[in-house]
Amino acid sequence: MEFGFTEEQRMLRESIRRFMKNECTREYIRDSSENERFPIELYDNMVKQGWMGIPFPEKYGGAGMGPVELAIFLEEASYAWYAAGVSYFTTVILGGYNILTYGTESQREYFLPRIISGKCKLSFALSEPNVGSDAASVELFAAEDGDHFILNGTKMFITCAHVADYIITVTRTRRDAARKHDGITIFLVDAKSPGLEIRPLKQMGRAATHTNEVTFKNVRVPGENIMGKLNEGWANLNKGLGIERLSVAMMYAGTSQAIIDYAAGYAKERIQFGKPISKFQAIQHKFADMQIKADVARLLSYRVAWMLKEGLPCFKEMSIAKLYASEAIFAIANEGVQIMGGYGVMKEYDMELFFRDSRIGMIGAGSSEIQRTIIAKQMGL
Ligand SMILES: Cc1cc2nc3c(=O)[nH]c(=O)nc-3n(C[C@H](O)[C@H](O)[C@H](O)COP(=O)(O)OP(=O)(O)OC[C@H]3O[C@@H](n4cnc5c(N)ncnc54)[C@H](O)[C@@H]3O)c2cc1C
Questions:
Q1: Which of 28, 257, 273, 329 could form a cystine bridge with 358, CB 3.0-4.6 A?
Q2: How many whole angstroms from 130 Cα to the centroid of ligand 1?
Q3: What pLDDT does residue 1 have?
Q4: pTM > 0.90: yes or no
Q5: At residue 184, does pLDDT exceed 90?
Q6: What is the CATH architecture assignment of 240-378?
Q7: Ligand 1, from 88, 89, 127, 168: best to mutate by most atoms within 8 Å of Cβ?
Q8: By three-state DSSP, how is residue 222 classified?
Q9: What is residue 93's predicted lDDT score, i.e. its pLDDT?
Q10: pLDDT, tens digit, for every residue of 127-165?
Q11: What single string gives the DSSP state of each residue in 262-284?
Q12: CA-CA distance, 7 to 5, in Å (whole number)?
C-alpha cells in the first residue's frame, strides 16, 4: 500500500501552496467575505496558472490529470481559503466535470476549453423551494415546444449562480412517469436568457461564494442544450457524485488543517496563569482530537481519490468521506472557538469566520442524515 505522492504531485502541491499563500491574504478574505463579493481576481489568477484544466483530458485543452491531483489542488486551495475551493469546484466540477461525464461531444468541445481559459463560469441547479433531500421530486418543468423547451419554476440555494455564464438546470420533462426518478432532463441554460432572474441570498457563512434563488419564467432553451438524454437525467446525476463528494470532503479536510494551525498559533501566544495556554493539558488534548479528525478526513478523502483513480466502486466510501469531513470541520471550528475564548467569537479574528463557514458542510451536497442513510443501505441494511 502506497501512502505517498509522486515527485510531480509533490511539486504540484508546493506550487499551489505558494500561489494560494500570496493570493489569499487575510485582508482579501475578510473583504470578500464581508462584502459578499465573488473573488474574481483569485479566480482569474487560478485560470492563468492552468489549474482549471486539472481533471480534463488533453484533447479539450486540459492537463489530463486524475482524481488524486484534483484532491491535492482542492486540499491546498481550501487550506488557504475555503472560497478558493468553492469558486473552483462550482465551475470545474459541478459544471465542467458533469459536462465531461454526460454531456454531448459538441458540448464538451464547446464548454471545456472555455472553462479552462476562464471564459465560462457555471453553476449547478438541482434544489428547489420544495425539493431538497428528496432530489428526484424535482418540479421545475420543461415543456417541449418544437426544437426548444420552455422552462418554468424556481431553483433554490444555487451557489455562484450570480457569476455564472451557464446554469446546469435539472428539470422535469414528464409528469406522468411511473417513478419520480423517470422524466428528469438536464439542460445547459444560458444565464442571460430572457425570463431568468437571479436573486442573491443572505447566508450565515461562505458569503463570498453565496447561494441564489433562480427563477425561470418561460425561459426558452434549445433542445440541443440537453445534457445526456431526454427523460433520463437521473442516472446521469449519480455519475458525477464520486468526484463531487470527494471534492467537498477534500475541501473540508484542507480548511480543517488551516483552522487547527490558526488556533495553535493563538494558543502558543496567549498567556494565562503565567504560561501559554498551549501548555495546559486540557488544551493540548483538544488539539490532539482536532488533528485526529483532520487526518481521518484527509485519509478518507484520499482513499476515495485512489479508488476513483483505480476505477473501483466507492459509493459507500464517498459518502463516508463527505459525512466525516463535514462533521469534522465543524467540530474542529467549534473547539477552535473554545480555545480562543472570547476572541474566538470576535469579528477581528478569523476563527468566527471559520466557524460560520464550517457549519454549512453538514447540509449541502447531501446532508449528514442522507449520507448516513446511504452508508447504511450500502452496508446491506
Ligand atoms: C451553502 C449551500 C450551498 C448549496 N449549493 C447548492 C447548489 O449549488 N445547487 C443545488 O442544487 N443545491 C445547493 N444547495 C442545496 C442543498 O443541496 C440542500 O440544502 C440539501 O440537499 C438539503 O435540502 P434542504 O435544505 O431543502 O433540506 P431538507 O431536505 O428539507 O431537509 C431538512 C432536514 O431534514 C432531514 N431529512 C430530509 N429527509 C430525510 C430523510 N429521508 N431521513 C432523515 N432526515 C431527512 C435533512 O437531513 C435535514 O436535516 C446548497 C445548500 C447550501 C446550504
A1: 329
A2: 10
A3: 72
A4: yes
A5: yes
A6: Up-down Bundle (1.20)
A7: 127
A8: strand
A9: 98
A10: 999 999 999 999 999 999 999 999 999 999 999 999 999
A11: HHHHHHHH-EETTEEGGGSHHHH
A12: 7
Domain range 124-230, CATH class: mainly beta
Interval between CA 366 and ligand 1 midpoint (Å): 6
* Residue matched to cell numbers 488544551: 283
- CATH number of 7-120: 1.10.540.10, 3.40.640.10, 3.40.50.300, 3.10.180.10? 1.10.540.10
* Stretch(es) of the chain classified as CATH 1.20.140.10: 240-378
CB atoms within 10 A of CB 231: 15
Candidates 131, 138, 163, 367: which one to mutate for ligand 1, based on the most atoms within 8 Å of Cβ?
367
Catalytic residues: 244
Residues of the chain with CATH 1.10.540.10: 7-120
Instruction: For ligand 1, say whether the CB of 157 is within 6 Å of any of its atoms.
Output: yes
Considering only CA atoms, which of 196, 190, 187 is closest in space to residue 214? Answer: 196
Read off the pLDDT of each residue in 169-181 and give the average, rounded to a whole number. Answer: 95
Give the residue, out of 86, 121, 133, 160, with the most ligand 1 atoms within 8 A of its beta carbon, to mutate for a pocket test.
133
Instruction: Encode pLDDT of 319-358 as tens digits.
Output: 999 999 999 999 999 999 999 999 999 999 999 999 999 9
Q: What share of the chain has pLDDT > 90, as a percent?
A: 98
Q: State mean pLDDT over 364-379.
A: 96
**C-alpha neighbours within 13 Å on the C-beta side of residue 315:** 10
370 close to ligand 1 (CB < 6 Angstrom): yes
Confidence at residue 68, expressed as pLDDT on a 0 to 100 scale: 96
- Please determine, for residue 2, whether its predicted confidence score (pLDDT) is greater than 80: no
Cell of 329: 470541520
The ligand 1 atom nearest the CA atom of 161:
8
Distance 364 CA to ligand 1 centre (A): 6
- Grid cell in block for residue 110: 464547446
Q: Where in the chain is the domain with CATH 2.40.110.10?
A: 124-230
**Cβ within 8 Å of residue 107, ≥6 positions away:** 99, 188, 225, 227
Ligand 1 contact via 132 beta carbon (within 6 Å): yes
- With a 6 Å cutoff on the Cβ, whether 159 touches ligand 1 is yes
